[in-house]
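Sequence in, structure out.
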Amino acid sequence: MTWDAERYDRWFQTAEGRVALSAEQRLLESMVAAWPRRGKTLLEVGCGTGVFLEHLYQTGFDVTGVDRSETMAAAARERLGCKADIQVANAERLPFGDKEFDYTVLWGVLEFCDDPLSALREAARVAARGVLVGYLNRWSVYWWTHGRNRPGRTLGRARWFSFPEMRRMAQEGLGRAPKLSRSVLPGPLPTWRAGRPWKYLNTPLYPAFVGAFAALRVDFVDEKPFTPIGTLKAEPGLG
């Protein structure tokens, strides 16, 4: 599949795309909330134009990205500059050593892998502390409108996963049961709006089997919840 980096980024500038981006970023933040940031390295596999890799950098991780498309990788380099090392690589054959990173993220990439299970195994191999997987949910309303019977479109050519299927594949590929799973955007595309009443539908996080985009996290070590400084209401001991 040939990827158009400019078209990919333009989608996030549409009304629906802005809502989708905001929802996915909230989901991403909630899923990595327990992961320490300072001095921790994170690899995003299938980083695309770097939209989510940049967000992960801004949350405090030392980030690296890979994408099998040179066009997408070039766009990611332009977006992040010296903030990240961006390489061209296949998810099923990562050019890194065992446990070279603390964390690996696969955000909307397994749908387009030739061998998703091998990609998961590679993600687990290079990660010392945990793996996060984001994926298109085959049980969602969005699949019925944009995934089913649309072979000529990008999402129609993608492999959508149900939550039980992804959970089983994660268990096999990552070697552990998911620690956490959630989703966003439960309605069809016309409901992806920022104003009332739609924002009340699009803002919450839902169980993994509900929303258009879902995620699950596997931890290889026990992590304590991480609370960003900006969320503290008072100094310790004064609350």
